[in-house]
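Worked example 2:
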Amino acid sequence: MRIIAGQYRSRPLKSLPGLDLRPTSDRLRETLFNVLASASTLDGSVWLDLFAGTGGVGIEALSRGASQVYFVESEKKHARLLRENLKSLKISEGFEVYENEAASALRSLDGSGEVCDFCFLDPPYHMRGAYERTLEFLGQSRLVGPSSIVIAEHEKKFDLGETFGSLSCYRRILQGDAALSFYRLRTGCE
């Protein structure tokens, strides 16, 4: 696993052996960032990387010019690995690591007044309820503004749903066994 582009291009990221951690593949991460770069600027953007694992998506965002990434990871060994990846790249600012359950971190961040340009969530595939709970929260949250994009990585065969609160799916990309579903706030009479 490596950083695809930007300041840390081609630098490796550590992962853990076994099936306990399922990082977003290099190919899917590249697709994600190509889609986002064609739609908006990443320079100076603010990211929320939920169920962050190795931190690959948030670190890729920092590499490509994001000014702030909020990593949320509840598993201690995964949060430790995430911090090791940041340290190995000598990234010392522009991020915060929340070592809590997603719901707790979201409540805390929601009260901060921060608005994220991009919210990425990738719970373990078997935690299907986490998708609904997280997307429902984001659909009512102050963390998501009119131009924010919420992206969920999930199993291709899992029908994630079209709407969550004020969020509406506007694009879905399938790649291998995975899918990326893109959401934004509904406006007007959609």
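The radius of gyration is 15 Å. The chain has five helices and eight strands.
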